[in-house]
Amino acid sequence: MDNLAPYASIQENSTGRRHPEGSPIYRNEYQRDRDRIIHSAAFRRLEYKTQVFVNHEGDLFRTRLTHSLEVAQIARSIARELHLHEDLAESIALSHDLGHTPFGHAGQTALNECMQDYGGFEHNLQSLRVVDTLEQKYAEFLGLNLMFETREGILKHCSTNNARTLGEVASRFINHTQPSLEAQLVDLSDETAYSNHDVDDGLRYGLIAFDDLLKIKLFRDQHDKVVKQYKNLNDKQLVHEIIRRMINVMVVDLIDTSRSNIEAADLQTIDDVRKQARPLMAFSEDMSAQKLELKQFLRKNLYQHYRVHRMTRKAHGILTALFEAFMNDIKILPVEALEQYQALDYQSGDEGMARCIADYIAGMTDRYAIIEYERIFNPRQLSFANLIP
Ligand code: MG
Hints:
By secondary structure, the chain is mostly helical. About 60% of the residues lie in helices and about 0% in strands.
């Protein structure tokens, strides 16, 4: 890539892949990562996984797939403007949610509770597990064998205990250093994407009221500009014009603030990025406060809305029941999941079996989890035809 800042993730400075491979011919290493991610099964499943709304509730809502594409779009714009590695930013963005369970955060909470005695469950760690181990189709290695920087970006959070088991990719959680600027910017692009598209989905679904949103500065400021400029917009145009401006002001603020942080830090190489006490990619104080106001609004009015909460309860019940059923009688686990158990290096005993079941459940789409629940618990599905997957 031309035009990279000296402190960007330059592939020649990378520790590379866990299993050394020859260089690609017409692509750079991070483009190859992106291509492997797009061709993975876990990426295709994102289409049928809940972001906030269950996948089948409506065709117009964001899924984890469209969310990931929006994050990638925002991240690429920022990376290009700051002369960071756009392909790395894209790879991290497209893979950042690969480890999510069905049914969004409700699914993760349920699975984490089920896994309490067996090491817990965390979607960030699971995303890394998907690209490092669970995708099994390459001849020479397990997983996708991605570049260090892509893996580091996927691992957004990690407890010190978990970090000790993960080696170099998690060392920053022990040494208290920073990841690459590309990893930092994807994290903030994620927030920018969901804060805005959840407003859009929430309005469309009738869960949040337009008039209530006008109490939120970020929304109100852009609303006032739009209605001043255009008098006869329909509702759809009005909402879109406000939200596209909200994304824009957030992205511009993020670029401007980060650029001045980078200049002030006088960076020479990526090592200087890692040594910083705090991430250099950041929103201004004013934007951080506005963003927080919006997030608190969404938490109260959208994520905790009774209609969302009903879905959450149901999802929690489905995943917990599946986990317990498999733990109680491993013989009802499908052949593919058992084969994976044999192929991978799981721990012996209940701990390994629980991890295998968690991997199987986490990989399900929303609708697959519902069908699997029906197959196991619905007495009307007792005919042999229905028992065949
Ligand atoms: Mg995300």
